[in-house]
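Protocol step 4 of 5: obtain the predicted structure for the target chain.
Materials: sequence only (see below). No template structures provided, no constraints applied. The aim of this step is simply to have a reference model before the mutagenesis design in step 5. Sequence pasted as it appears in the construct record:
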Amino acid sequence: SGLGRETARALLTQGKYEVVMACRNVNKMQEVANEEGFNDLPGTYNILPLDLGSFDSTRYLTFIHFHFVHD
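Step 4 output (structure tokens):
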């Protein structure tokens, strides 16, 4: 959405934050990140799959983030 997009841009522009973009469609979010030029901003970001209707999905996101992304 526009609010999430602008929030991510603001945080990435500051260059002090690691932004985790959790979403249902990782490919679509990567397209948005590319269109918005997030790779050219000083901050870092990760796009991870998440379906809030699934406890397994939430648990998987936590596992992936803290064991692979955050190290």
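Step 4 remarks: The chain has a mean pLDDT of 90. The first helix runs from residue 2 to 14.
Proceed to step 5.
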